[in-house]
Design a protein that fits this description.
Elements (H helix, E strand, L loop, with lengths): L7 H6 E3 L5 E4 L12 H6 L3 E3 L2 H10 L6
C-alpha cells in the first residue's frame, strides 16, 4: 500500500489536541484591523476547536492525523 499524501495547506493550518479534537486558528485577524472592534479582535485570539462536520473534512486532507 503506497503512502498517502497530506495536503500541505492543511498541515500548516490545523493541529490536534491531546483529546483528539482538531484545532485551528481564528479567522479575520490578518488585515483591516482598524475597522474591527476591540471585542472582535480579542475574541479572535488564540485557537478554536472545529465542529464535527469540519473535522471530518480536515481529516480527509490529513490521513496520518487520524490515528
Amino acid at each position: 500500500m503506497p503512502k498517502l499524501k497530506t495536503k500541505s495547506g492543511a498541515k500548516k493550518r490545523f493541529g490536534r489536541t491531546a483529546t483528539g479534537k482538531i484545532k485551528a486558528a481564528n479567522a479575520h485577524k490578518r488585515h483591516r484591523l482598524i475597522s474591527k472592534s476591540k471585542r472582535a479582535k480579542r475574541n479572535a485570539k488564540g485557537t478554536v476547536i472545529l465542529q464535527p462536520g469540519d473535522t471530518r473534512l480536515v481529516l480527509t486532507y490529513m490521513p496520518y492525523l487520524r490515528g
